[in-house]
TrEMBL record:
This is Urea active transporter. Pfam families: SSF. It comes from the Eukaryota. CDD domains: SLC5sbd_DUR3. GO terms for cellular component: plasma membrane.
Length: 686
């Protein structure tokens, strides 16, 4: 028996295509209701920035949805299957701290570039064209890799469960997403994100309560403990204390944790998706949204993998397991098929449908975030910057529509190509940091360090990339004697490449900046303008002259004071405008800045403390103590994971409804009145 035989191809096409189109129709209707009953107008700002006033609960839900990839659901269970309970923890902690720490970046973006549409606009305003092009390349590469991971993981599961053609799945999965993103823009993706998050959290809790409470095969943490102990006797885990699945003392698990931690800095800090949610959020609640989102997201891979990944270990010796009497093939594990096999063993047909729906929701929700992110970059950082600096809001929306459609289907083609050369989800997931994390340090410095120079911003990301690729391939060669898909996929090679990327880019930037430091005051980034449908950006000579005076007044050591930069500022004048403000405006701005400065301080210490707990204080003492869980301790571990999931569900499903209750009541009441009024007219009643 294999998971291929569980569901029919018809059901696969029905969910991927039919459900996708129905969901797109539902999102479109909700968008229309908002326009009619809440008076929302689809300007370019509304389409690509959601009015910059989204409440924290909805932003947190959107962050959770955007960060819940197919990999979140599939690879977390795969590392649980490989390393035991250490796998889910390191996956969750190593990928949640970036969202927590991004709260600092989010509030700094609101402070230093309040009218930005993309983080690349800040780069352009501060450093000019060359640096903008460098970061543009890294940003688009990040979006392409993330989109491919979504489609590779999603298509693998759909194909495994239903036998649906992988190529068809790669192109049909994003179809519904493209439709509602085209129609509703960023606000539609927020609503879709919320809906997807609700479904995902419900299914995660369903699997947890099934495995640990109601299943005839397991039914309790105590029974799971016994099954895992027996599994360790049959198949001890190399590198784990006593070969046990029930320990955090896992050498390979820790190595994966390092890869996971380092690589995910790149996929958060260089993904426009997370900046876009910061841009869309209300300024004074940005930090709150990211802290809630980061802690809530932790529960998804941690609880799901502690359920499905661990259940796969416990049940693979049972005839109900699809691969019985064999263990899962390593390629199937890397492709993310541990969770589907465990779900089928636990719940049969229903489990397969639940996993299919779970993966569909994860792929489509994260894909919508990637689509609108790439659309924003293409619209503002390519079209408006280099093609039509005088573009109106209506033109920007039109271009955004084109980019959304082209990128959506283009990523389907790229995913098919990667699948054809046998690059699967696991390989691409670990490779991501090698390719993009070298730009993390420079982008953080661009927002938070006035001394980073233009030359450092341009050179450090590229230099760090050269270091990371060299370290990755050289480690594979030195350790295994040959460079191929197998050796480059080793944990040692990926650790070397990922660490070299993150540290290489950051240290190169620091060294180059200290040799010739800048002295930047963020005035030009604060002057980036908002575009509306009735405003055309102009290249005002006065504005350029003011900007030149500002640059000349800077330190002579500042690269920004060069003639080359003044020329680049003229080129970028269409997106930079220094606007006068009244005394009242200045007073209000000062108050707002004080509030955001306070929020920034809170973000730094709170995210720092939580990161210290999740990466150091919680796991490392358990690792170095070589502790193997007792039955009582394991029971508490499982109960904690379920409680965390319940709290997260309340935070990202109930809280957004509560904070938007007035708008919901307005829409529902208006629809009710419209229906009643229509009935009266049709019956002739007065």
């Amino acid at each position: 028996m294999s998971v291929d035989s569980v569901l029919s191809q018809g059901l696969g096409y029905g969910i991927v295509l039919g459900f996708g189109l129905v969901f797109a129709g539902l999102m479109t209707l909700i968008t229309l209701a908002q326009k009619r009953f809440l008076g929302e107008k689809m300007t370019s700002e509304e389409y690509l920035a959601a009015g910059r006033s989204v409440k924290p609960g909805l932003v947190a839900s959107a962050v959770v949805s955007s960060w819940t990839w197919a990999a979140t659901l599939l690879q977390s269970s795969s590392v649980a299957y490989r390393y035991g309970i250490a796998g889910p923890f390191w996956y969750a902690s190593g990928a949640s701290v970036q969202v927590l720490l991004f709260s600092v970046i989010a509030i700094e973006l609101k402070r230093k570039c309040p009218s930005a549409h993309t983080f690349l606009e800040l780069i352009s305003a501060r450093y000019g064209k060359q640096a903008h092009i460098v970061f543009l390349g890294f940003a688009l590469l990040t979006n392409m890799i993330v989109s491919c991971m979504l489609l590779l993981g999603g298509s693998a599961v759909v194909s495994a469960l239903t036998g649906m053609n992988v190529i068809a799945a790669c192109f049909l999965l994003p179809l519904g997403v493209i439709l509602y993103t085209l129609f509703g823009g960023l606000k539609a993706t927020f609503i879709a994100d919320y809906t997807h998050t609700v479904v995902i959290m419900i299914i995660v809790l369903m699997f947890s309560f099934t495995a640990y409470c109601t299943s005839d095969l397991i039914g309790s943490p105590e029974r799971m403990f016994d099954l895992l102990h027996e599994a360790a006797v049959r198949h001890p885990v190399e590198g784990n204390e006593e070969g046990s699945y029930l320990t955090m003392a896992s050498a390979n698990g820790l190595m994966f944790g390092v890869i996971n931690l380092v690589s995910n800095f790149g996929t958060v800090f260089l993904d426009q998706t997370y900046y876009q949610r910061a841009i869309a959020s209300a300024p004074h609640t940005t930090v709150k949204a990211y802290l809630i989102g980061g802690l809530s997201w932790f529960a998804i891979p941690f609880t799901l993998a502690t359920t499905l990944g661990i259940s796969a270990i416990a049940l693979e010796n049972n005839p109900v397991f699809p691969s019985y009497p064999n263990r899962l093939d390593p390629h199937a594990v890397s492709a993310g098929l541990v969770a589907p096999n465990a779900a089928v063993a636990l719940l049969g047909y229903g489990g397969a449908v639940a996993v299919l729906l779970l993966v569909f929701m994860a792929v489509t929700s994260a894909s919508s975030a990637e689509l609108i992110a790439v659309s924003s970059i293409g619209t503002y950082d390519i079209y408006r910057t280099y093609i039509n600096p005088a573009a109106t809001g209506k033109q920007l929306i039109r271009v955004s529509h084109i980019i959304t459609a082209v990128f959506g289907f283009g990523m389907g083609g790229l995913a098919v190509g990667l699948d054809a050369i046998d690059i699967d989800l696991g390989y691409l997931y670990n490779l991501t940091g090698v390719l993009v994390s070298s730009a993390v340090g420079p982008i953080v410095f661009a927002l938070m360090w006035s001394k980073q120079s233009k030359i450092a911003a341009c050179v450090a990301p590229v230099g760090g990339l050269a270091m990371s690729i060299t370290a990755w391939l050289l480690t594979a060669k030195l350790k295994y004697g040959v460079i191929n898909m197998t050796t480059t996929a080793s944990d040692h090679a990926f650790v070397a490449g990922n660490v070299a990327a993150l540290l290489g880019g950051a240290l190169t930037s620091v060294v180059l900046s200290l040799l010739k430091p800048d002295n930047y005051d963020f005035a030009s980034t604060r002057a980036v303008t908002i575009v509306t449908d009735d405003m055309v950006c102009t290249d005002s000579s006065n504005e350029v002259e003011d900007d030149e005076k500002h640059q000349v007044g800077q330190s002579s050591n500042s690269p920004s004071s060069s003639a080359e930069d003044v020329t680049e500022k003229k080129t970028a004048a269409a997106i930079v405008e220094i606007r006068p403000s009244s005394a009242a405006d200045a007073e209000q701005a000062a108050q707002d800045e004080a509030k955001m400065a306070k929020a920034s301080r809170f973000a730094r210490w709170s995210s720092g403390v939580m990161t210290l707990i999740l990466i150091v204080l919680w796991p490392l003492p358990m690792f170095f103590s070589d502790y193997v869980f007792s039955k009582t301790f394991y029971k508490g571990w499982v109960i904690m994971s379920i409680i965390w999931a319940i709290c997260s569900t309340l935070a990202v499903t109930v809280y957004p409804l509560w904070e938007s209750r007035d708008a919901i009541v307005t829409v529902v009441t208006s629809i009710g009145k419209m229906i009643v009024g229509g009935r009266r007219r049709s019956t002739g009643a007065v």
